[in-house]
């Protein structure tokens, strides 16, 4: 059963995103140096590369969890110029459009699973508790966790917690989903159940950008592969092509290490 079926009437359309000339420094340490990326609506972009390359920072810049020093974020017809004060209204609109799932789940430990999924809907979208809970239960059902609704996250496995985090993000009807190594903290078996949910989302046309070391996901699910190293995108294109015939020495080295 499709992940989004339960929520179709409220679903936003899936949008593309353009990042243009994004730069970011921490002090005098450059982390992103003029990085641009085009993402088609409904496409899956996998992002790979060595640790410290700037992948997480780049992902966080897309929804402005991290503020770029310069660059433009374009979603649909909407443009956010960074490097200046960003109006709260623009920030809120962007965060509603772009959902994010982290390596470490980031669930609220003191809330039940149901409240975890409902709370942001009430806070951010102003939904009533009844409305939010109904949507949460439908989404929990879709990720196979309806029976966990009244449990606390600590009683759930890592794979279950990550699926709850995905349901929580989907509950806000994002048009784009960002995943930062969503399975890295999980045993392979539990990672598979998370990847299955992500694969389903991709099949339903969600625009996704996924930082991952899961090369099989990158190869089988993504439409576009991006390789980051040393603050830059060093190579991008068709996933199969890059995996079988990488052009850059740095990409070759990285692929040798992970494949
Ligand atoms: P990746 O996700 O590819 O491993 P990151 O984006 O996490 O890379 O980090 C890129 C670089 O930026 C690293 O050198 C890291 O130490 C540095 N960095 C990340 N976040 C911060 C921060 N908040 N303050 C200072 N340095 C940071
Ligand atoms: Mg990272």
From TrEMBL:
PROSITE patterns: ABC_TRANSPORTER_1, ABC_TRANSPORTER_2. It is a peripheral membrane protein. Signal peptide: none annotated. InterPro entries: AAA+_ATPase, ABC_ATPase_HisP-typ, ABC_transporter-like_ATP-bd, ABC_transporter-like_CS, MetN_ABC_transporter-like, P-loop_NTPase. It holds the Pfam family ABC_tran. Keywords: Amino-acid transport, ATP-binding, Cell membrane, Membrane, Nucleotide-binding, Transport. It is found in: Cell membrane. Residues 17-255 form the ABC transporter domain. One of its GO terms (cellular component) is plasma membrane. One of its GO terms (molecular function) is ATP hydrolysis activity. Belongs to the ABC transporter superfamily. This is Amino acid ABC transporter ATP-binding protein.
